Amino acid sequence: MPTQTLFTQFLNQHFGAFTTSLLQAVHVHPKYPAYPITDSFAMELLVFLVLIAYFILVRMTLSVEKPAGAQHLAEMTHEFVSEQGEQIIGHGSERFTSYLTSLGLFILLANLMGIIPGLKSPTAYAVVPLGFALVTFIYYHYHGIRENGWAYIKQFLGPVWWLYPLLLPIEIISHLARVLSLTVRLYANMFAGDLVTIAFFSLVPVGIPLIFLGLHLGVAVVQAYVFFLLAAIYLSLATAHDH
Amino acid sequence: MKKLQYLFMSLAALLFATPAFAQSTAAASPGAQWVPLAAGLGMALAAGLCGLGQGKATASATEALARNPGARPGIFIFLILGLAFIESLALFTFVIIFLKVQ
Predict the structure, then answer these.
(1) Which parts of the chain span the membrane according to its record (chain B) (predicted)?
(2) In angstroms, what CA-CA distances link A220 with A50, A115, A150, B69, B83?
(3) Would residue B70 count as lying in a domain?
């Protein structure tokens, strides 16, 4: 049996058999058939539930006269995201605010979860950042095509026609490398943060690891911001008109 | 001349040190003894050069901020972006080491 957090064990006890049969219906064989739900999935589900609960709470307590604490927080988040979007994407950034807000909040919460004892960061497993990166990749290409139509292909080509065959593969590789770099940046930062804390805990078990936990807190916030910022920049590049 | 002497002395010490390492890992594949050394050296190179790059970027950003405090938001975005990109190079090294060293 793999070591799992309490929440994952709870999920496996109640939904384990069902998940295994579901996975085997699509010919996927989990490593431990009795415990098919991994920590990363359970923690992601937890983040999802917390965020949904938060959004519902904000929606229920919306009021013009007496804004509650949750509403203040939501307004601050919205203001921050739309300000950044306006600054980076410029005109027409309102369309992307919802995606950027949910992406940023999800990653922030997922990163900060590793600090709480008994929980783990889902972003410390490579598959979770890969999911974020792939969704961002599809999303900005979709909006690039929607905004520019067939002219979107011009972004992949050079300024003159005889450069086209040279630049097309380079651009395609560089767009795919964005997925890699987004994934590895988030994953390695979160993973290395946990690892550093554990390594210093094995050297000095009292006091010193706390410094690295504080550092990890800072890194978690900055990496969530960086992921959000890069998604916004890729969106702005994809939806730019004159190229 | 003195420096050369030190260099050769340290090199000689290193050369004599190798048989001592070799005896303990006779069962492992040849060259496995060098893996921790290579991992440490690789990570140290990556971290050091990444530190140099980040230091340069931060120095320019603070200088620019001192000259023109009004440009704070723009500089901040580019600083964070640059630091993230520089840092990801060191992290690539970390991931490769993690994949290769078992």
Answers:
(1) 32-53, 74-99
(2) 18, 10, 39, 27, 15
(3) yes
User: What's the complex ipTM?
Assistant: 0.70
Q: What CATH number should be reported for the domain holding residue B92?
A: 1.20.20.10
Answer yes or no: is B27 within a domain: no
pTM of the model: 0.82
> Structural domain tally of chain B?
1
Partner-chain contact A226 B84, CB within 8 Å: yes
Residues B29/B98/A137/A48 CA torsion (nearest 10 deg): 130
pLDDT tens, residue by residue, A47-62? 999 999 999 999 988 8
- Please state the domain extents for chain A: 1-37, 38-239
Site from B75, B76, B77 to mutate, A interface, most A CB atoms within 10 angstroms: B77
Q: Which among B73, B80, B98 is the nearest to A229, CB-wise?
A: B80
* B50 in any annotated domain: yes
Q: State the smallest CA–CA distance between residue B66 and chain A in angstroms.
A: 22
Residue A32 corresponds to which tokens in the numbers above? 């431990």
